[in-house]
Amino acid sequence: MTRQSVWRLTLEPMGVHVAWSLLHTDGTAPATAVGGGVMRDTHDAAASAFAIAPQRSADGQLDLHRNILVDPIQERAAATLLGARLLPPALRDGLLEPGRHQVQIAARGWLANVPWEAVTVDDRSNTRLIESALLVSAMSPGIAVTRARSAPPVDCSLPGLAIVDAGPAEDSVTGESAIYPGRLPPELVGGGGLTAGEVVAPGKYSMSAAAAGKALAGQAWSRLLYLGHVTAGRPEEPAAAALVFQRHGIRDPLTAGMWLADPARWPAPARVALIGCGSDDARFTEASGLPVAAINAGAQLVTCTRWTLPSDRLQAAGLPATQLALAVHRAHRSESPITTLREWQLGRLQAWKADPAPEASPLYWAALTSYLASGGDRG
């Protein structure tokens, strides 16, 4: 039988330094401490992590040409630096040993902006963390223990609910516009994508936050895919993060605070995907953002995004953001969602190594992070 190793790496920022601890178990005994301490002189790592989020040009548009993740030379340099500075040597050495490895990463602050899947484990072979292990993001066990409700165990035969582009077609205040103006692209619906019956808010058609709650509570769902605009939280108020809906053409946000306060109104199925602009909230000290709200409302697995995803309209080739959403959708309807998603990410990594085109860059596939609630979906 292939040996299974589970590693838990916890990292907390201390200015530009990092406090860390590393636990390990082979599944036959409780986890034991491997090491811990403070990683010093990580200013370059912090600067690289901050530079990963897409930058905006003078007119407010995302500028892909200024992002280090779409430049193969800069991306590899950043991946090597982050791996060397943030992965303890014991973990790097352990992941090179034969066997199956899972790495649980609990990272907050600027460390949550690190594209962990893409960081380098072995510099000489350019081996990335996603190639060495199955990755999940770790959340405080107390969040699942104290949750308001728990969804029934996942039944992949049940339909999924997809809420797509639910916000206003144009918002003069925020400058947001429909992701898919006019209609949903054929790549998204049909032909292995979403089915027409599970898409409840296509394109410009109105859906309010209340209507989303009625849809969620109206029947048993195996999964929820939200694909649309996300309003980021604030350091002093992470619960202000919101999924963007509309009511009579006016912005109607569902904030994490609202979802946390009334989970019965927006009950979450076992698997939830929140694909939008930086739907993860781990960069804030307080855990009260959208992933926490989804778990509190019943989710066992939540997949979200670390940073803003450029619209497909900014790309010259392909529909990388749409393909990313579909990869998550396919993974969440499989028996092993995190393993299935990892297989897609490995394919994108190989494409990036072979032909570093922007649509294959870690800007997309390394933006994803998945949380598993304790005792829930095994992934």
Commentary on this structure:
The protein has 379 residues and is an alpha/beta fold. The strands form five sheets. The protein has a five-stranded mixed beta sheet with strand order 3-2-1-6-9. Strands 10-11-15-16-17 form a five-stranded mixed beta sheet, with helices on both faces. It has helices spanning 43-52, 72-86, 89-95, 129-132, 141-145, 209-218, 256-261, 290-296, 320-332, 337-354, 362-365, and strands spanning 4-14, 17-25, 32-39, 55-56, 62-63, 100-107, 120-122, 127-128, 134-137, 160-164, 223-227, 230-231, 242-247, 250-255, 271-275, 301-305, 368-372. The chain is built from eleven helices and 17 strands. The chain folds into two domains: 4-138; 148-372. A hairpin with a 6-residue loop joins β2 and β3 (32-39). The longest helix has 18 residues, at 337-354. The protein is globular and about 55 Å long.
SSE blueprint:
Layout: E1 4-14, E2 17-25, E3 32-39, H1 43-52, E4 55-56, E5 62-63, H2 72-86, H3 89-95, E6 100-107, E7 120-122, E8 127-128, H4 129-132, E9 134-137, H5 141-145, E10 160-164, H6 209-218, E11 223-227, E12 230-231, E13 242-247, E14 250-255, H7 256-261, E15 271-275, H8 290-296, E16 301-305, H9 320-332, H10 337-354, H11 362-365, E17 368-372
Helix pairs in contact: 1-2, 9-10
